[in-house]
Amino acid sequence: MLGTRGVPARYGGFETAVEEVGARLAERGHQVLVYCRNPEPSTPLPPLYLGMRLVELPAVRSRSLETLSHTALSAVHLLRRTRPDAAFVFNSANAPFLPALRAARVPVATHVDGLEWQRGKWGTAGRRYYRAAEAAAVRFSDALIADAQGIADYYAQEFAAPTDLISYGAPVVRTDTSRLAELGLSPGSFHLVVARFEVENHVDLIVEGYVRSAARLPLVVVGSAPYADAYTARIRSLADSRVRLLGSVWDQELLDALYCGALLYLHGHSVGGTNPSLLRAIGAAAAVDAFDVGFNREVLGDTGRYWRSPEDVSALVASAESDPGAQADRGQAAQRRARLYDWDHVATLYESLARRLAVGGPVARRPSGRRTGRTSL
């Protein structure tokens, strides 16, 4: 498994998937190797983690080069030191390294992620690169993985390319909320946002809408992002004294207490496919109000409420505070829906795909990578 920050999972959806799937595959007797970037180089990663073998390699600390530089080193290490039966490459941005893997006869599946070229952090050159990388992933992968139906539809429409639809899992989160006292909070006494500080996650719209409301309960914001100083400053400028910016919270038990104790969870992600923080929220029985986009509706269905503007957020926050019982009911319905997203089943789908890759079975050969000219999502 390469192309991510690796494990232990401390950042995003890819890392969560690698940890949850990789650990289960190792438990089932497979040899699993994960390439990792270490956020704390002074403390080396262990050689084994949850049954997975870890290879720690450096990366250029730059927004545009960090992923590519690390994946390049990972590909070189893989081709020189080990020849796996199958490789999972995460992120279509890593498509330039696929031809080398294919030339070495390493069967490879690419998890294409969301519509990266729509992310606000990329300029014109970055968006063009991601669009080209999508086409290269289609051309040079033996299989493509999509984590949401909307992503699968996009590749079908843009490239006439089939995908394996494998979503993330939603853990059922039950934890002792007494630790909220460490933050001066109690269950049902706050609203919550957990998000990387990127424009397409709309943290600024959530904060702006909340501040416009007459909310009595505080808004707790968990998150940050490297290379996002300007956006972070915007969020801070919009906040008032009711907004509590906690930064990153790496203590999973405390983070789970926040999910379980929130009156309302506000989710602003819009371009990344199925989002693990949203799945964790419904697994914790949180009532969710989400940015109105197909990926979020796919996960929440009728258990969620939806917004597009700060004005919408203001109204929803006020509504939640006026009827806490209704939010508890919505949260219970969301937790029941979370059972559709099971990590054991997800791991089985990855295992099945790995076996198909390894034996050269019915993995569809990719189309040319040329766009069909059809209307994209």
From TrEMBL:
Key words, A-Z: Glycosyltransferase, Transferase
Pfam families: Glyco_trans_1_4, Glyco_trans_4_4
SUPFAM superfamilies given in the database record: UDP-Glycosyltransferase/glycogen phosphorylase
Top-level division of the source organism's lineage: Bacteria
Residue stretches making up the Glycosyltransferase subfamily 4-like N-terminal domain: 12-163
Protein name: DUF1972 domain-containing protein
Species the sequence originates in: Actinomyces lilanjuaniae
